[in-house]
Sequence to fold (420 residues):
Amino acid sequence: MACILFVHQNFPGQYKHLAPALAAQGHTVHALALHGQGHAPAGVTLHRYRLGRGSTKGLHPWVGDYETKVIRAEAAARAALALREQGLQPDLICVHPGWGESLLLREVWPQARQLHYVEFFYGAEGQDVGFDPEFAGVDFDTRCRLAIKNTNNRMNLALMDWGLSPTHWQRSTVPAPERGRISVIHDGVDTARLTPDPAARLQMADLDGQPVDLRRGDEVLTFVNRNLEPCRGYHVFMRALPDILAQRPQARVLIIGGDGVSYGAAPAEGSHKSRYLNEVAGRLDHNQARRRVHFLGRVPYDTYLQVMQLSRVHVYLTYPFVLSWSLLESMCLDTTVIASDTAPLHEVIQHGDTGWLVNFFDPAALADRVARSLADPTADAPLRQRARALVQARYDLHRVCLPQQLALVDQMLAGDIPPG
Fold:
């Protein structure tokens, strides 16, 4: 049995299944996370690091992002050094390098093999930046900023022994010479837990305090983001909403997501949520909107699952960016998925086969497709069945993804070069 160290600022993060599975196999499993963040799954010993300083005021704006990563790298390395002095000698380090924590670990444990979670490599073309013409274009300064932002990514590609990306598209963002050292294995979806529930029910109140009792079979449309923002198409969804409500007078809309920013820039004032709600307010019947549109904010996972089990149609929109777990989860739950025709979606949504694809920039087309699917759920039944079957066959956590992850770890521990 081996000693394995996981490093993730908010552990377990993407390792919530892999780390305890390795512990269950008998490996000694440790984790290192930022002070005050994360938690330890069963069998994992969690250690924490503290930041030794804050960012420097007045730095060149292109350098600030990298400095924050160096600050984290130093803090993680000093914590790692203390663990080494206590006798910790990992055979393998599994690390998400996105926050810089991995940059100096080889100075502490030069012999330990490193398996990196390669989530994304920034680019100025064909990805999230510059995709949406409504926002700032990609000028020379933006290209330079992104080039400097990739400094951390480039250094980690050189430091890792091997990499793992959750999707082929995410791996494709990495420079071509490095892709052969990255395996594509998704985090996995627990399809046994994510099952349709004919008895699904949600009770709540509308904005006027009136009771709302929704059941499976009701005309429910869902939209889910961590935060409601343009990167995940919130502005497009809101612009389609008045037409959807007009065409489907019985539809209820459940929107999950916070008011903050996960990706991209914050608006000049207020939140993206309020900005785009205000934009379409003149096209919405005020009383109808208060009764039929429900902003649920951020909710516990069990509540999210209830909502998705109610959903007749789920809208998923995204810039060319990291694919959300919620997309695959929704495909498991007998809801028709209507998604943006953007590159990351093409791995899982085949138009008219496992879902419907629409032009990201066409709210009218989105509204029309949503209205048709809400009106005739029977017509989409074979599509929904194929969507669930695809996720079960390709992304099931226990039968597909976790065994592949464990096999990759075994290869790393054995010193073998895994297949590209």
